[in-house]
Design brief:
The chain is mainly α. It is about 40% helix and about 0% strand. The chain contains 2 helices and no strands. The longest helix has 17 residues. The radius of gyration is 11 Å and the shape is globular. The protein starts with about 25 loop residues before the first helix and ends with a helix.
Amino acid sequence: MIESPCRNHCRLNDEQLCTGCYRHIDEIVAWGSLSDADKACALARIRRRKAERPEH
């Protein structure tokens, strides 16, 4: 089971991305019903987003 990347610093930016965990609002809402494979894909997207935003 893959746990949520939530850091309890929730705030959505203009792109609807959480500035705490870098998930898109759609990923946040769906997280509980995603398969582990889908969560792993989401985590890969999150890593890319975070790498593209070094200021955070």
